[in-house]
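ugh ok fine here u go
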Amino acid sequence: MYQKDSNEGRPCRIIIPFVFYHGRSRWRVPESFQDQFQIGEALKKYTLNYKYILFDTHRWEFDEEIKTSISENIEIFTSIMLMKSIHEKNMNFLAKVIDFLRENDFIDIENLNSNNHLIIILEYISQTRDISLQGLSEIIKDTGIEGDKIMPTLAQRLAEKGKKEGIQIGLQKGIQEGMQQGIQRGMQQGMQQGMQQGMQKGMRKKAVETASSLLNEGMPAGKVAEITGLSVHEVEEIRDKPRGE
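structure:
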């Protein structure tokens, strides 16, 4: 960046280091660069030193911060609440997040879509915690929200994400298969075939996994087919297949 500014003949931009931390334990790295090293007083004036801005969620308290202006930005405030609490053993924090959203008229169950903030929050929890959709649905019901209204929207978002992941997995696998086939049949033709096959396999695998999860939640086969892109017949075969096979 400095080199670019110099080449373009303009003053160098100021860079202010900022660390946002929400790990399991407190941040223990000294906030002063010099303090990270054992340096004698005589040498300190010759060494580089600066401080960085630290936001450690362990030092952030809901009851105090709700009185400040940051609570006016509902999405940022609830996101910090979520990241601060995501490593807790229980899921009590979710009720607190939902209560805050409800108090600020930020929940509209009748007009949910896959980009709704509550749906994004639930997706984050489902991706970072070892919890099934059914378990998440039960926790949501304890907060007074009907799970059958919100879970299909969450399932739709997860299915869309699964398809994207399937494409990425398929591309990676396809490139590998394509390179191997290309050695024998020609690089260009082999890569094209391998990528197509890999994408199809990856997307189908994700669709089957999503369908199985939704069926376990009790969702009708027709709705599962609509969400995953599988045929009703394929969904019924997944439903009727003995577990463990």
